[in-house]
Amino acid sequence: MAAIVVEGGHPLDGDIHASGAKNAVLPILMACILADGPCEISNVPYLQDVTTTNELLGQMGVELGINEKMHVLVDATALNNHCAPYELVKTMRASILVLGPLVARHGQARVSLPGGCAIGSRPVNLHLMGLEAMGARIEVRDGYIHARADRLKGARIVLDTVTVTGTENLMMAAVLAKGTTVIENAAMEPEVVDLARFLQSMGARIEGAGTSTITIEGVDELHGTEYAVLPDRIETGTFLVAGAMTGGRVRVNATRPDTLEAVLGKLHEAGAELEIGENFIELNMHGRRPRAVDIATAPFPAFPTDMQAQFTALNAIAEGAAQVVENVFENRFMHVQELMRLGADIRLNGNTAMVRGVDKLYGAPLMATDLRASASLVLAGLVAEGETVIDRVYHIDRGYECIEEKLAQLGARIRRLPTTRAA
Ligand code: UD1
Q1: What is the model's pLDDT at position 420?
Q2: Is the CB of residue 97 below 6 angstroms from any atom belonging to ligand 1?
């Protein structure tokens, strides 16, 4: 199993480009199922989750290719298999995003029920409730969701929890339904807006994406399109935190600062000097140590749960103490025990972590547990004295494109080992 080795103590200084957003490209690739012609998607990040999505679509009969501009071509007109098997869904929960498009476009789907996951139970009841409200007949048996429908019908759907992929699944189902669908308490995440814009470019009629009420007027068919994926706000935020933790200077180009307001507010509170342009963010700590900042995660536009682990790592070496409250997932503190192995002073109480900043962390072997937790361990490694070896980095490869190359470009001492030294 591959590992990442980080030698801490080198302030970052440099410029990088943000990659396309993982959480936008996955639903966009799945939404290609809805089109009657080929789609050309650009700014696609090279990630394991994208490979898994391509594998999933490929085994359904979708034709995939890459053109000379490195754009991904997706032609779903030959789709002939409506199943998302357990083997793929268990490696990527976002596979559930084929459910809405398959039922809307093909009237049937068989999608493995995602199991539990490292960060919480993560049910999909709201995806199913919304599809049923649109007229789909759903049965859960043999570990699979079996869904069937003639043409879906517009419906008013009130989500009792804000769900990102739930909102996306229902929006994708509604674009080909007969009549109007209104999704209340919809997720307002920028990735939901990006998917809506992609669907609109295929001819869908959607209003209100980015607010808590999305209205979709179903159309009879959607056409192929060309589309560039939104930059990744979580990747951007992760590199900025790396700059802040090391007392360095990091500029992220080709990003979207308007998608990162809560995170930038916290970096400012931590003492970072920020220069923000239309499509870049430059953070400079001028060698200073960050101040600890309280965090409470919640759906967009509040502070994102996908940045919680990185800020927990920042607080671990900051001046002062801070409280980190996780309100979205019930078990998203797997990184805490690992950070403590480096010498962090963190007390966990339910969904709250009390983090007291220490003067120094010390390198140690660590185990990555989930995607964002792994990123926080790499960040901690950047400031820990000596070497930190992070095992099971396949979690990181799911969501960060070329993380060690990008960090090395900023001056980090980081390398990948194909296999771990200690089994
Ligand atoms: C998406 C993101 C993930 C991010 C999360 C929260 C993708 C591919 N993944 O995950 O990176 O951390 O949003 O911002 O976009 N819930 C239910 N019933 C449902 C669905 C969700 O109770 O049917 C609950 C979940 O257990 C969780 C909360 O709603 O507590 C939010 O989860 P949700 O927004 O659905 O997360 P994902 O869409 O899976």
Answers
A1: 54
A2: no
